[in-house]
Design a protein that fits this description.
270 residues; alpha+beta; 7-stranded antiparallel sheet; two-stranded antiparallel sheet; 7 helices; 23% strand
């Protein structure tokens, strides 16, 4: 380690680094939100930003408020099996997964609703766990960055219409809930662009749905307590957050790119 100046202030350096990196994440999260105490989101925006004269306790509370209360970055309950157990039984081709998440809003806060999400994945049919290399992963990450990470993240609208795209020979099996067929085609073409694949209209199927799902789900008494029911096929925008690469033989997925700042990706989003 290089010698530090005699007047080096470790606390001031730490505070500046934390403030700059954390506040950038906060500002990118509150997209198009006014710095205004009169609105729920504006007040949350103000409360999350670290200020120069904050005490250590205030900084810790702002971090806690943003990551756990606002972002909800707590362990999410899932139905699944441990990675090691799954890989012991199934050998698979490398898989790229793109994650999308709804922006927080006053509507969600007021109705105590979770943010909608979406996942789109595809297999690298020309690769195996033995042939996939960091160079290939870097190329994928760079392509995803160019297509999905610019302009505050790629946004598309979810909805009640189910559209599928089935092309197993090239590793594609998409099932999208969208607001229109046009949206589905645009999203699919964008994902295919990552590998330079060509869109084939004959592989697209549209599944009509005449059910009217409630915007705000009702409640029901479940297990002795009144609980909010899950949101079904919400009509809302979801924004690209991160992408990862799953490889057989590696228990933890490789992060390709992450706009949230929580993971270190192969490429930086900004």
């Amino acid at each position: 380690m290089a010698d530090l100046p005699e007047d080096f202030d470790a606390w001031q350096n730490l505070l500046e680094q934390l403030t700059n990196s954390f506040n950038q994440v906060v500002e990118r999260t509150f997209v198009n939100v006014e710095f205004d105490l009169e609105t729920p989101l504006g007040g949350m925006y103000v409360a999350c930003l670290i200020q120069a004269d904050d005490t250590v306790n205030m900084i810790i509370l702002r971090l806690f408020l943003f990551y756990f209360c606002y972002q909800g970055n707590l362990p999410t309950p899932i139905y699944g099996i441990p990675t090691d157990s799954y890989q012991a039984d199934v050998t698979f081709r490398p898989q790229v997964i793109l994650y999308f998440l709804e922006d927080n809003s006053e509507f969600l806060l007021e109705n105590n609703l979770p943010r909608a999400d979406a996942r789109i994945s595809f297999r690298l049919v020309n690769q195996t766990y033995l042939t996939i290399t960091p160079t290939v992963a870097m190329e994928l990450a760079t392509s995803i960055k160019e297509i999905f990470a610019s302009n505050n993240g790629y946004v598309w609208e979810k909805g009640t219409l189910k559209v599928t795209y089935f092309d197993p020979a090239n590793g594609y099996d998409f099932r999208l809930y969208v607001n229109s067929q046009e949206t589905a085609v645009t999203v699919i073409e964008s994902v295919l662009e990552i590998q330079g694949s060509t869109y084939d209209q004959t592989k697209l199927s549209v599944h009509q749905n005449n059910v009217n799902y409630p915007v705000v789900p009702g409640t029901a008494e479940i297990f002795g307590k009144n609980r909010t029911l899950p949101r079904k096929r919400p009509i809302t925008n979801v924004r690209f957050t991160y992408a990862e690469l799953s490889i057989w033989g590696i228990p933890t997925a490789v992060t390709l790119i992450d706009r949230t700042g929580k993971r270190v990706g192969l490429v930086q989003p900004f």
